[in-house]
Amino acid sequence: MLKSFRVNNFKSLINIDFRPSGLNLLIGPNNSGKTNLCSAINFLSWTSKAPLDNAIEFATGETWNISNVYVKDDILEIEIGCLLPYENFKIQFDYILRLLVNKDYITGKQSLILKEEVLKASGCGFDQTVLIENNNGNVKLLNESDLFKNLIPRTETFFSPTDSTVLLRLFDLETSRCANIFKKYLQSWGYFNFNLSSIRYHGVIPGGPLFSNGTNLNLVLFTLHNENPRLEKKIIEALRILEPKLDYFTFMSPKPDTIYFFMEDINHNKFSPQSISDGTLRYLAMIYLIYSAACSEDSNLIKPLYIIEEPENGIYVGHLKPLFEKIDPSGKCGQFIFTTHNPYIIDLFDSNLDGIHLMKPGNISSILIKPDVDKIKKLLDKFPLGELHFKEMLS
Q1: Who wins on pLDDT, 208 or 93?
Q2: In-domain check, residue 76
Q3: Where are the beta strands (DSSP E) in 65-214?
Q4: 2, 75, 180, 202: most buried by Cβ count inside 10 Å?
Q5: Within a domain: 373
Q6: Residues 171 and 30 in one domain
Q7: First-to-last C-alpha distance (Å) of the chain
Q8: Do 97 and 78 meet the contact criterion of CB atoms below 8 Å apart?
Q9: CATH classification of the domain holding 350
Q10: How many other CB atoms sit within 10 Å of the CB of residue 72?
């Protein structure tokens, strides 16, 4: 579970310290930095899956304006703390990533060069033990298996290219079990801003989990249909709040590169994504994420962190309350971060005030505010939470 996320000199974010709970709502006016914070979290996840320049492009869609234009600093910093399961124990991981933002003054493009990367672990025999230390590509990697055998741990030294993190290049070996747990945790994070034309796409795009825009929803559901019918049944039952006649999912694959997904009613009438409402499809994608994150009660499994932008788009707000109620606010079944401008969505968080995070625009940097919960509770007697936000009474 992510405990802290600090980012410095990333777009509009200067020394922002974000401390999420299990269920979070990120609110604030336009250009306040909400999407930039989500992009910074998404970027860190991508650094465990791709080289740095690819990671920044996947996370933000560009290679310009990576650092804050108002601050003459070329170092981008990200620091996180998280608590993750290891066998029957919990390990606290602390990770620091410092990158040089290098600008090409001819093209205006920016590239990233790794300057420092440090991963430390505490618990289960570790005490702020350095698992990875990377300075300008000069790497020290701890042999963790020695530590578990009560031997003096050896350290492997080598050079790694500065266009990527050591985590990206880390092999899944006994000697780096805990470091790989942290890597897999970063890789489990997901950012979602669903595009309706993408969700309706019927082509087959190979890949792992659900894509950011929902393009491979058909393949994800087809895989679920074949591999986990119990989870599929739960999703169908939850979806009946929008589609009460829904009975089951069916699929046709006339060609290897095509999968057609249908919702069928009890009379075998088929409805394709083209004839299903936007709200139903977005609700389906979100309920899949919520249920798939919580599908295992095994406390030793890594639970993901998901960011979902503006969940209310196309969905009747009355249907979102039962959706949010399916999320465990403790974070034991995954962490969720939602962004919104909708006062009715904000109202749904009046029983989860610890998860409210407010962003405001500043002169040169976004400002992140954690509202005073006790103060809000008193104000809720006079105004609903959404109105408190628009009256600017939360800060």
Answers
A1: 93
A2: yes
A3: 75-86, 89-103, 110-123, 126-135, 138-142, 155-159, 190-192
A4: 2
A5: yes
A6: yes
A7: 26
A8: yes
A9: 3.40.50
A10: 7
Q: Check whether residue 7 and residue 92 sit in a common domain.
A: yes
Measured in whole angstroms, the distance separating CA 327 from the mean position of its chain's CA atoms is 15
**Amino acid symbol at 199:** I
Question: Residue 84 in contact with residue 93, Cβ under 8 Å?
Answer: yes
Do 6 and 155 share a domain, yes or no? yes
Separation of alpha carbons 386 and 380, rounded Å: 10
Q: In what order do the strands lie in the sheet with 155-159?
A: 16-18, 2-8, 75-86, 89-103, 110-123, 126-135, 138-142, 155-159
Are residues 290 and 237 both part of a single domain? yes
**Which structural domain, as residue segments, surrounds residue 265?**
198-303
List, for residues 134-163, the tens digit of each pLDDT value. 999 999 999 998 887 777 889 999 999 999
Q: How many residues does the chain have?
A: 395
Total domains in the fold of the chain = 2
Burial zone of 77 (CB within 10 Å; 0-12 exposed, 13-18 middle, 19+ buried): middle
Residue 219 lies in a domain: yes
Judge if 54 and 180 occupy the same domain: yes
Candidates 74, 93, 63; CA nearest to 9 is: 74
Contact between 25 and 346 under an 8 Å Cβ cutoff? The reply is yes
Q: pLDDT-based confidence at 297, cuts 50/70/90? A: low
**Does the pLDDT value for residue 298 go beyond 60?**
no
141 and 262 within one domain:
no
Dihedral sign of CA atoms 26, 335, 172, 139 in order: positive
pLDDT of 296 reads: 57
Residue 77 forms part of a structural domain: yes
- Which two three-digit tokens encode residue 26? 């990120």
By the 10 Å C-beta count (0-12 exposed, 13-18 middle, 19+ buried), 181 is classed as: middle
